[in-house]
Specification:
alpha/beta; Rossmann fold; Alpha-Beta Plaits; 2 domains; 13 helices; 14 strands; about 35% helix; binds adenosine-5'-triphosphate; P-loop_NTPase; nucleotide-binding; AAA+_ATPase; ABC transporter ATP-binding protein; ATP-binding
Length: about 350
């Protein structure tokens, strides 16, 4: 659906994107994750045709952004990091204005009404945008992206500055939209991408450093494929028997932890899951398994490793020293302090125009 090939972007001497390539299949929700300054907005602006690349190409449904820019724009609904809202317009005026600007062909009233219901802004339809809470403004921004019913939605940092309740609401909305659209969600917040996306592409310093299914990315990229087993068994006999299992690379004892109970490290081939054969062996031998855990990195560990250590560059030829980056975590409370109140007021209809 969306294919990005060898995208490079230079701002003067600063290389913001360095040979970025990825594909997003139809009907998926993909997270484009990276710390501040990684190159997310630059990529999104190029994909949506708002910025030109220094080299490389982007196709959407087989249409090239350079050859058919207007056709590609019709296929994409874009919520930029700073949504282009006119604060002195009402929601109604703004959506009608954008409808005309985008030259949407669908029946106006019905289409706008459906979008307002989907994004849950029908209750603020006649309000001034400038009087809405940040959460509602963001919904209006998403509504604007949905005009014309584009198959692809690109959302750049859609929950930045929202309070926790608004964040959950917008995430639910995105999950909902993912049922009928291909969604690329650009974010620096790992938990956001993890909550909403089935696949994660990690970008750092203008390069793609990881790409895979959310559920298995950490496991797949963990270099350490080890299980830690606690078993009540004769130590040497257990080590020997487990070593004989298929796909087991190495086993060693980490000592007696309780009387007659040993902790063993069981290392396996990278793509093998030895838990079932291990369980079957211990059951056959009558050795009670008291605990089993894997030593995979968590996604958070992996993100930190990929974006703040040299590991990020070990996948690239270029290993010159680079500054460390800040890893941003999801804020626990609203950054602007009173956003929650603003939202409550809006919902109760207490805002003034
Ligand atoms: N117009 C510009 N002129 C010069 N440098 C720029 C410009 N826009 C972005 N950059 C630089 O390009 C790099 C990538 O920026 P970009 O905004 O794409 O990152 P980002 O991942 O979206 O970060 P953030 O989440 O902070 O917006 C950064 O080093 C940034 O300073």
């Amino acid at each position: 659906m969306v294919e990005v090939k060898n995208l490079t972007k230079r701002y003067g001497v600063n290389m913001a994107l360095n040979n970025v390539s990825f594909k997003v299949e139809e009907g998926t929700i993909v997270g484009f994750l990276g710390p501040n300054g990684a190159g997310k907005s630059t990529t999104m602006n190029i994909v949506t045709g708002y910025l030109s690349a220094t080299s490389g190409e982007v196709t959407v449904s087989g249409k090239n952004t350079l050859d058919e820019p207007n056709e590609v724009k019709k296929l994409i609904g874009y919520l930029p990091e700073q949504p282009p809202l006119y604060l002195d317009m009402t929601v109604k005026e703004y959506l009608n204005f954008m409808y005309e600007l985008k030259k949407v062909k669908l029946p106006r009233e019905k289409h706008i009404k459906e979008i307002c219901q989907l994004t849950k802004i029908d209750n603020v339809y006649d309000r001034l945008i400038g009087n809405l809470s940040k959460g509602y403004r963001q919904r209006v921004g998403i509504a604007q992206a949905l005009l014309g019913n584009p198959p692809v939605l690109i959302l750049d940092e859609p929950t930045v500055g929202l309070d926790p309740k608004q964040i959950i609401e917008i995430r639910n909305l995105i999950t909902n939209l993912g049922r009928n659209h291909t969604v690329i969600l650009s974010s620096h917040i790992l938990s956001e991408v993890q909550a909403v996306c089935e696949r994660i592409i990690v970008i750092n310093n203008g390069r793609i450093v990881a790409d895979g299914a959310t559920d298995t990315l950490a496991h797949d990229l963990s270099k350490d494929h080890r299980l830690i087993l606690r078993v009540e068994a004769p130590e040497r006999e257990a080590v020997h028997a487990i070593r004989e299992l298929e796909n087991v690379v190495d086993v060693y004892s980490m000592g007696e932890k309780e009387k007659g109970v040993y902790e063993l490290s069981v290392e396996s081939e990278p793509n093998a899951d030895v838990r079932r054969p291990l369980f079957a062996l211990l059951a056959r031998k009558g050795w009670p398994m008291l605990a089993l855990k894997n030593t995979d990195l968590t996604l958070e560990d992996l993100f930190l490793q990929l974006t703040s250590s040299d590991t990020a560059y070990s996948q690239n030829e270029d290993k010159e020293a680079r500054p460390k980056v800040d890893i941003a975590y999801e804020p626990e409370s609203a950054p602007d302090g009173n956003a929650a109140d603003g939202n409550a007021e809006t919902e109760k209809g207490g805002e003034e125009e």
